Amino acid sequence: MVHDTIAAISTAVGEGGIAIIRVSGPDAIEATSRIFRSKLSLRDAESHTVHYGHIVDPVTGEQVEEVIVTLMRGPKSFTAEDVVEINAHGGVVAVKKVLDVVLLQEGLRLAEPGEFTKRAFLNGRIDLMQAEAVIDLIRSKSDRAFSIARKQAEGTLSKRIKALRQTVIELLAHIEVNIDYPEHDVEDLTSAYIREQSGKTLEEIGKLLKTANEGKILREGIMTAIVGRPNVGKSSLLNMLVQENKAIVTDIPGTTRDVIEEYVTLGSIPLRLLDTAGIRETDDVVERIGVERSRNALEEADLILFVLNYNEELHEDDRALLDQLSGRPVIVVINKTDLSGKLNMEEVERRSKPDSIVRMSVLEEEGLDRLERTISTMFFEGKLDSGDLTYVSNVRHISLLKRAQQSLLDAIEASNAGIPIDLIQIDVRSAWESLGEILGDEVGDSLIDQIFSQFCLGK
């Protein structure tokens, strides 16, 4: 439990109808009462009530702003502390003036990034997995990513991790009884129990890890590089996907000189699009830098959209790129199918996978549905619309689940090899601690600070 009181603006900076200043801590109600004038004092108000009045400068007595104040007494609040939310007129000046008056009150300080959510965690209202889901809610790039984050914030995934941890702690208790009172147990039976319980837990961890790849993609988006020779329609494809003219499109090869990044949702699939400079040999110094950055983007990409011009014959640069991309997750986009065909499709199919070739006309806006289906099949086995939203999407969680998995595999292996039970206990305890670290039960202050520093101020 923390003992000071914090305040911060909880809405985005800029103009808007309403801006909110959130105050949380033991002095939240008392401090706000000193600057809030209304018919009823906040000190006497019931929890979860809304009050109209004015914020007043305690030094000059001047009315600073007309506001609506919401009062929530702990522990029934987001932070599990007393919370006051001051709703002022939106606008940089108005909200800053209110915050300045609030922070003048004795014992109040400006909140650190993510400190309200951090207090909810430290006060036991939510676990660390739920807290991390809050930032995923804010950063969601698609409806599906938002739904997954919302489920995690509600504790759906936490319940499964807690159930796994309970199974492991029961196993630990059984082992410790065997160690402390060997005369009351048979070691062969304990070894069999270790293998049985570890196997059950491994099965459940395996189910969760099966969702990890899809969950990570839905959370972060598929890093997608749009590549090809100059003037095949890469920037036009980007503009079509984004539904804006983000990239300059001309008939002059080499127009795109740098990597342009945009987020877009294609159906239910979040894509982090990288429109790259046309890859070719060039004497232009600036274009050469852009080409080099394009090659770097290729190395980092989860998916490559390799664009070819249906109206042109296959060029040696195209062949070289196709060979270079062999074995990578590539979709060959045949653009400009509204024009007469000069491209040797037999050769293209020979050099790539026929089921990863998508014919499109960016000009006519045709082929987007085929592109979506192909990406869905490649990354989600065509089952993206499954109703199960219990995905593991956080890299930290995935890493810890794999660590717990390995510890239990080591325990089973040690048991099969006849290793003494007190040594097997070390592996089982390691699995229990790794699962606890996901929930925040076994983490240090430095990791907690690092996680919450990623949040925006006021959340």
List the helices and strands and how they pair.
Layout: E1 5-9, E2 18-24, H1 28-33, E3 36-37, E4 49-56, E5 63-72, E6 83-89, H2 92-103, E7 108-110, H3 115-122, H4 128-139, H5 143-154, H6 156-180, H7 187-210, H8 212-220, E8 222-227, H9 234-242, E9 260-266, E10 269-275, H10 285-300, E11 303-309, H11 316-324, E12 330-335, H12 345-351, E13 357-359, H13 368-380, H14 395-416, H15 421-439, H16 445-452
Parallel strand pairs: 1-7, 8-10, 8-11, 11-12, 12-13
Antiparallel strand pairs: 1-2, 2-6, 3-4, 4-5, 5-6, 9-10
CATH architecture of the largest domain: 3-Layer(aba) Sandwich
Quaternary state of this entry equals single chain
Biggest sheet descriptor = 7 strands, mixed
Task: Quickly count the domains.
Answer: 3
Poorly predicted residue ranges: 246-258, 278-283
> How far is the first residue's CA from the last residue's CA?
18 Å
CATH superfamily of the largest domain: P-loop containing nucleotide triphosphate hydrolases
Order of helices and strands: EEHEEEEHEHHHHHHEHEEHEHEHEHHHH
Classify the helix fraction into a percent range: 40-55%
The first-level CATH class of the largest domain is given as: Alpha Beta
Shape: flat
Strand arrangement in the largest pleated sheet: 3-4-5-6-2-1-7
What share of residues are in beta strands?
15-25%
Quantity of strands, as a count: 13
Number of helices: 16
Stated plainly, the CATH topology of the largest domain is called Rossmann fold
pLDDT averaged over residues? 83
Judged by helices, strands and strand pairing, the structural class is alpha/beta
Radius of gyration: 29 Å
